[in-house]
Design a protein that fits this description.
The structure is a single chain. This protein is an alpha+beta fold and 210 residues long. 39% of the residues lie in helices and 15% in strands. The chain has a single domain, classed as 3-Layer(aba) Sandwich (L-fuculose-1-phosphate Aldolase). The protein contains 7 helices and 8 strands, in the order αββββαβααβαββαα. It binds 1,3-dihydroxyacetonephosphate (13P).
């Protein structure tokens, strides 16, 4: 896809996430890696009403080249790309159920979700928990960078999920699966639940390597 097609795709998928309640207000941001630099949604923009022409363009160091002022989470996106050379897109949301899980006490920071379903294992994998820092704080970006080499999906404590993918549609599919899994986890809390076994998880990882 060329840059203009990627701009259109960011706006189209942003609207799709917004229309289905996965994004609200001005929360969330989306980026895509270009041959040189990145596209990133502007700060304080609504993912449901993005103007493709105004999406920020950054150079390889994260400096704005054109478009509106970029998301305050630019460093968080750059941290993911820095540790994941095969990633082509990063999506960050404040989706309801994932945020609810991010506020729970006693989570396993290396593997937040129990292995509830095959798609959670295949598309989210081991979800890491990053400690709380204010949105846009470079300490948040640094905490994410430290986890990003081993995890393509990270949950920011008391904030929301961030996911990297090999394409924008892959990142969006994975963050939708993450939101769905968070909802299932909350629905199943305090219920006797049959989880996938270690052998079943190993089989999925063999069949569907990430
Ligand atoms: P921006 O409006 O700067 O993209 O920030 C939104 C957000 O989701 C902060 O975490």
């Amino acid at each position: 896809m060329n840059e203009n097609q990627l701009r259109e795709q960011i706006a189209e998928l942003g609207k799709s996430l917004y229309d289905r309640g996965l994004a609200h207000g001005s929360a969330g941001n989306i980026s895509v890696k270009l041959a040189e630099g990145y596209l990133l949604t502007p700060t304080n923009s609504c993912l449901g009403r993005l103007d493709p022409a105004k999406i920020s363009r950054l150079d390889g160091n994260g400096k704005r080249v054109s478009g509106d002022a970029p998301s305050k989470e630019a460093f968080l996106h750059l941290g993911m790309y820095g540790e994941r050379p095969t990633s082509a897109a990063v999506v960050h949301l404040h989706s309801l159920h994932a945020v609810a899980v991010s506020c729970l006490d006693g989570l396993n920071p290396d593997d937040v979700f129990p292995p509830i379903t095959a798609y959670a294992v295949m598309q989210v994998g081991r979800l890491a928990l990053a400690p709380y820092y204010a949105p846009g704080d470079t300490a948040l970006a640094e905490a994410v960078r430290k986890l990003a080499g081993k995890h393509h999906a990270i949950l920011l404590a008391n904030h929301g999920p961030v996911v990297a993918g090999a394409s924008l549609s892959a990142a969006v599919y994975a963050i939708e699966e993450l939101e769905q899994t968070a909802r299932l986890m909350l629905l199943l809390q305090n219920q006797s639940t049959r989880l996938l076994t270690a052998a079943q998880i190993a089989d999925l990882n063999r069949r569907f390597p990430t």
